[in-house]
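Long-time lurker. I teach an intro course on protein structure, and each term I like to show students one example going from raw sequence to a predicted 3D structure in token notation. This year I'd like something fresh instead of my usual example. Would anyone be willing to generate the tokens for the chain below so I can use it in lecture? Attribution to the forum is fine with me.
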Amino acid sequence: MNTLTLRRAGGFAATVLVACALVGCATGGGMANPLVGTWNFTVESQLGTIEQVVKINDDLTGMITMTEPAEAEMVPSNIALDGNNVTFDVVFDIEGQELPAQFVGTIEGDGITGEYVTDLGNGTVTGTRAG
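-- Reply from a regular --
Happy to contribute to a lecture. Here you go:
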């Protein structure tokens, strides 16, 4: 190979490396947040079994929807993921009374387990990723 061929090859390799670095930065390094998505929660508490749909967005905002025992929507706050450990805060409206709760759980693949911690007792949560 002559010098001109080596320079072209080196320039091409540098261009490819820069492009890969830019794509990696634009996609967050290829690491998707495992918490993002829609989850089907089953909560076992003193109130019985409650089904919830928990949606977490890319920007770590979300919505919790229940249809039983009564229709309700709640907005979780302080959503955080540390490794596989998940936490968020939410205020439940139970027959007109506000009940602050913190969810503390762990993601394992497409499953999540944990509990809602409240001043009136805790509720055990199991969940699966929807779809």
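Some talking points for your students: Confidence is low (pLDDT under 50) at residues 11-29. Residues 1-31 form one domain.
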